[in-house]
Amino acid sequence: MAAHELPITLKFLKWQKLYETEKPFKIFINVPKDAQDPRDTNLVFESVNVRVHNVREHVDGFSLDNNGFMYRQHLTRLSNFTDRKSVDETYLPEMEALLKKEVDGVDQVFFFDWRLRKNAPEVEGTVVDMNDLTTWLRPAVHAHIGALSPSAIRSPCRSKLIPRRSEPRRRFEKNPAPAPGRSILPPQRSCPHHQVLSPFPLSSSPTPTDQPTFSSTNSIWRPLIPSVSDWPLALCDGSTVSPHSLVETDHVRRSYTGSTMYLMHEPQQKWYYLSGQGKAEVVIFKNFDSERRGVRARYAPHASFLHPDAKADRPPRESIEVRAFVFTYPKDMKLPDA
User: CA 229 to CA 231: how far, in whole Å?
Assistant: First the structure.
């Protein structure tokens, strides 16, 4: 029987005085050797020993609004996740139906990203094409929140469910350094690399009654093997996370700049995982929720960790994460044509 609690090590952002005048960033393209500033990042992380609780015996005891995540049983018809067309045409509609069934207030879903991850050795010199969604990435080991609030909708569309729009490649310019902002609700800013993709209002402020409003950003994470034993996904109970422990970071890619929130460690944070999570066990978690009233958890930081009892002869983890923007219709709104 799996242990109820495990001692593990997670990587957290370590606050630097530099961040008071320079926004944290990570550049995912090659910086020219003759660049005035040759850095590709100013991020500093620290490894912290924490305890992660196994939810196997009370897997139904978590909810999106109370904890920021929940587990559900779900069978998929898809077997080949490396075929992009199959994922778009079969898996994404399955995930849309799942969100509408399990999450309150889901009227319209826009998938903007999905990623495959696998525990495989890194090959030196390998170039990863982030535009190829079928590329296997390594498990993400830093505690973070991925796609965030409405500002994150200014990233490239990743699914046919959002009409693709071409955009000329533009020269990268660093964003002006903001004031020391460590809030989950950063002010929106103008960036020449950002492209607004949604035709809908993106704030929780009053909107016309004939328009849907942005509700939340959710992820659905699924193992692609019968049982994950080496690199499980740990989730932090969002109700134990202080907004001041989250630091917005620019992720700069060749054609756009996106936002990620990295988590700094605080002792009250509580971490959970599902031992032996299998292909039919999905976890739905929040990256951002525009609703404040009656919601204890508006997000769920997460990270993968090396299981201390991992065996070398067990199949390596394979997984898929789908990210979606969720919109809610006013009661009297006429539904759009299918």
Answer: 6
